Amino acid sequence: MSEAEARGRGEIWIEKYRPQRLSAVAGHADIVGRLESYVAQDDLPHLLFTGPAGVGKTTSAMAIAREVYGDDWRENFLELNASDERGIDVVRDRIKNFARASFGGYDYRIIFLDEADALTSDAQSALRRTMEQFANNTRFILSCNYSNQIIDPIQSRCAVFRFGPLDGDSVAEYVRRIAEEEGIEITEDGIDALVYAADGDMRKAINGLQAAATTGETVDEEAVYAITAAVRPEQIETMVTTALDGDFTAARAKLDDLLTEAGLGGGDVIDQLHRSAWSFDLDDRATVRLLERVGETDYRISQGANERLQLEALLAALALEAE
Ligand SMILES: Nc1ncnc2c1ncn2[C@@H]1O[C@H](COP(=O)(O)OP(=O)(O)OP(=O)(O)O)[C@@H](O)[C@H]1O
Question: Scanning 211, 245, 299, 308, which has its CA 20 to 30 A from the CA of 24?
């Protein structure tokens, strides 16, 4: 189920279960502790949050605003997306208007700028000047996937927090709690499958749970894999070991199942190969050879090469080495 469909049904769980306070954010104990102490000391610097999607960057920024402003948080928190197609000028104008005054007599307002790494370095320089211009009455929280895409003068003005992918236990615990609150039966292998498919992304895990729960039946491994772009790691492993045994035709048929029946994209297959290679029952040398091929294939696909053809070439290379 897409987010739009979920909204159509009334509620979308990633919003319903978005933590409202910093203490409720799963994982990231060190980060949460430091952010809490900024709030407690009423001494918030500009912040730069980096890390992959769905791990709590926006959530933490909103939670800070809730803790600083209480009920007035919406009026004092501006959320902008830097990749907004209307460009940096619009972003700057909105920042200027917003920074002029606070609602409720607070010393500063918070501006949250998502996808800050989408700004060109010229736009980032302009942003830096804006940050300086309004330094007295605003705090910026910038969010991005990669901090190396952010110019040094901005990085040096911010306290930088690296949000890593969430650990499996944090995801499992959170998902289990939601299932309980929603009165959903979920099996342990269902939770494991959600954790695996989410790969550290809590948004993916929660969306997966909501989608799998729509059938009204117990959420188990099968239900999860049916709705996420992932298959059991064993299915990928069998394809690889079949190729390594020299049986290219059978390996190709298994690839076909993944792409056609399971509906995986070429990128999903590569992603799972990469994540699971070390858990396959292969000797180290075979794993290393596999990873080398996976790297090559990933690069070619990223350059626009035909996905199926490249994956078949990967299996062919493994099969040829079997001799
Ligand atoms: N650490 C977390 N603890 C609890 N829930 C989380 C956590 N991280 C993400 N979520 C859930 O996933 C949803 C999306 O998270 P969030 O908006 O914070 O992602 P993000 O890290 O800002 O990623 P993006 O850059 O893609 O927006 C939240 O609404 C919440 O339901």
Answer: 211
Tell me which of 22, 48, 58 to substitute to probe ligand 1's pocket, judged by most ligand atoms within 8 Å of the beta carbon: 58
Measure the CA–CA gap between 72 and 311, rounded to whole angstroms: 53
**Per the annotation, does 204 bind a ligand?**
no
Evaluate whether residue 34 is within a structural domain.
yes
Q: Give residue 90's identity as a one-letter amino acid code.
A: V
Q: Is residue 11 part of a domain?
A: no
CATH number of the structural domain spanning residue 102: 3.40.50.300
Separation of CA 18 and ligand 1 centre (Å): 7
How many domains does the structure of the chain reveal? Answer: 3
Asked whether residue 68 falls in the same domain as residue 94, the answer is: yes
Residues 253 and 272 in one domain: yes
Query: Which mutation among 167, 173, 203, 209 tests ligand 1's pocket best, with the greatest number of atoms within 8 A of CB?
Result: 203
Distance (Å) from CA 57 to ligand 1 centroid: 6
Range of the domain at 251: 233-320
Torsion over CA: 141, 144, 146, 152 (sign) = negative
Distances (CA, A) of 270 to 76, 102, 151, 193, 239: 43, 49, 32, 18, 12
Residue 15 burial class via C-beta count within 10 angstroms: exposed 0-12, middle 13-18, buried 19 and up? exposed
**Of 162, 192, 211, which closes a domain?**
162
Residuewise pLDDT in 10s, the chain (323 residues):
454 454 445 589 999 999 999 999 999 999 999 999 999 998 899 999 999 999 999 999 999 999 999 999 999 999 998 887 666 777 788 888 888 776 777 889 999 999 999 888 888 998 899 899 888 889 999 999 999 999 999 999 999 999 999 999 999 999 999 999 999 999 999 999 999 999 999 999 999 999 999 888 899 999 999 888 889 889 999 999 999 999 999 999 999 999 998 889 999 999 999 988 888 888 888 899 899 999 999 999 999 999 999 999 999 999 998 76
The residue from 200, 227, 254 where one domain ends is 227
